[in-house]
Amino acid sequence: MSFNTFGHLFRVTTFGESHGAAIGCVVDGCPPNLRFTVEEVQAALDRRRPGQSRFTTQRREPDEVKVLSGTLEHPEGGLVTTGTPIALLIENVDQRSKDYADIAGAYRPGHADFTYDVKYGIRDHRGGGRSSARETATRVAAGAIAAKVLPGVSVRGAVVRIGEIEIDRSRWDWDEVQNNPFFCPDPKTVPLWEEYLDAIRKAGSSIGAVVELVAEGVPPGLGAPLYGKLDADLASALLGINAAKGVEIGEGFNAARLTGEANADEMRLGNEGHPQFLSNHAGGILGGIATGAPIVARFALKPTSSILTPRRTVDRTGQETEIFTKGRHDPCVGIRAVPVGEAMMWCVLADHLLRHRGQVGEGVKWPFGGTTM
Question: Per-residue pLDDT tens for 235-244?
């Protein structure tokens, strides 16, 4: 199985399966002399960790990370990167593979069971193997390292829709995101989602969600035209998240409804003499290159495929059958996808910063003194 690596200069390779001994990643291309602590990586993982509320899977994984290589102890505390590959390991401690024994030969509708089997002729039925969202913990660990490449940049995420219930954007408050189990920025939507998901969970079903990401402080100029677009790489990274089915940048599909006047982000000079965009329909990216405005992306996640309701399917021998899935699963996988989406954005931005420096150094200075080309 190939294609377990993403990135060009800041490269992340992940390994391991949902019910294997461990999962982990190797971060290659990280610059040397960046300080970080294991506690910082662990804090990122703790935001994604399962079993923290009744609205996520009850699988009890501490997700304790171990740093195996690529660092030295810093004399003032913590670790410092050496520029060599950084290996991060997370042991699996709460697997219950017997829950999947009854579906070893049948395919869950909406899941990658069939596609893995038809491609490789073999699949890991124990929790889905590599297709399980368990793998995303490794990306969160890598994202914590990537964040150190981007001082002065912030990346934040929030759930903006679960099923048919959307937040009220007029009540958006980033401080509320960490005060509820949904990463919800609208406190009045929280009780609505609680009631809604309780009903979904008790029915043994699942529901989808939309996650919004915002990166601020991103230097203008990151990205490249045509085949190295920042938004294209970001979309690819977000669609690489398990259960992701759609991505929007800025206005996204809504841009098709706007006129040229409405969609264009007008510009004026800010107080410090830098361009200031009066709106941000572009989501901080034009021509595949960062404008310096906040980068805004949304990605949609489908409902979890492992549900208790019997569904029609076929098995590996070509026989028709019915299937339902026991075990512990997220009624809404979109909730824990927030730190995963943040991590993927961190990794993409770190990669593009290194690529940008490799081509143009520290970049050009604007304005250009009245000359035009």
Answer: 999 999 999 9
Percentage of the chain beyond pLDDT 70 is 96
Number of helices (H), then strands (E), belonging to the chain: the values are 7, 19
What is the token pair recorded at 204?
């043994």
- Selection from 286, 27, 231 nearest residue 149 by Cα: 27
Q: Are 89 and 114 in contact (CB under 8 A)?
A: no
Q: How confident is the model at residue 59 (pLDDT cuts 50, 70, 90)?
A: low
pTM for this predicted structure: 0.94
DSSP per-residue codes, 207-253: --EEEEEEEESPPTT-B-STTS-HHHHHHHHHHTSTTEEEEEETTGG
Give dist(CA 46, CA 40) in Å, integer. Answer: 10
- Whole-number Å distance between alpha carbons of 305 and 209: 14
Structure tokens at 87: 């290996």
Angle in degrees, CA 307, 308, 310, rounded to 5 = 100
Residue 73 three-state SS: strand
Q: Give the residue carrying structure tokens 């977000």.
A: 238
Coil, helix or strand at residue 157? strand
CA–CA distance, 300 with 159 (Å, rounded to integer): 10
Q: Measured in Å, how far apart are the chain's first and last C-alpha atoms?
A: 48
Cis ω on the peptide bond leading into residue 220 (within 30° of 0)?
no
Distance, CA of 129 to CA of 157 (rounded, Å): 27
Torsion 203-206-210-213 (CA) sign = positive
- Map tokens 């001082």 to a residue: 151
